[in-house]
What does this fold into?
Amino acid sequence: MPNAITRSLQLAAVRKDAAALTAVEAGSGQRVYTFKTSDGDFDRYSDRLSVKGWRVEGYNANGVVLFNHDDGAQAASTGAEPALPIGKGRVYVEGDALMIDIVFDDEDDFARKVERKVAKGILNAVSVRYLMLPGHYRQNERGGFDCDAQELLEVSIVTIPGNARAVRTKALDELSDEVVERIAQRVVELLAERGEDVPTHDEDTKPDAGEQPPANESKPEPGEPSSDDAPTEDDEDKTKPKNFDAPEAAKQFVEAFKQHIQGV
It folds into this structure.
């Protein structure tokens, strides 16, 4: 039976990286950054990891987040001050990807520096350290491994990604005021055009110049509704468009849009 494999590179587990998605305000007021850590496609190490095969219970019980996979092991041999975790994480499977929500330690100076660079898009990627479980991996056509079950050991914010898809998606709440104003202006234009295109009741009923009313206008044809069945003034009022304030409608839209992208 094959032994368990921890993919290694320079005495550290192989780093699988993926993209940060977006930062939102959690209900507790903490800033939560959501990342995609792994998918089921080939990575740069020619491995494919089954998304459904992730064993995450152990990690979620002690969800430390490191920087560049520095777990302090080298510091123990050099006498340097050991690196500490920069945050905590919770992983879960969503669709075809393994996701993680990360909260940085806002009482740690270095962790705050890392968070600022993540928020600015300077640091975009995370990386996983994992253990391939015995009997659940096999070599594939690219020389790497296809793995059906692997245990997640650790997640890190990294400077150099090892996954071609490790590109952070810009958060919607990072839209500049200028972009929001441009959106608002376009909404005003579209709503104004919509208001102009709606015909009024008078426009619908006003005859063209020179047009003569039918001679038998007062005599309905057989099968036509009598005057008692004709639309009443109240019915006509219902067909008339209400006063449409395009700027006010646009303002309400922009406020709702801002709340939506900020997760309010």
User: Anything to note?
Assistant: Residues 223 and 229 are 12 Å apart (CA to CA).
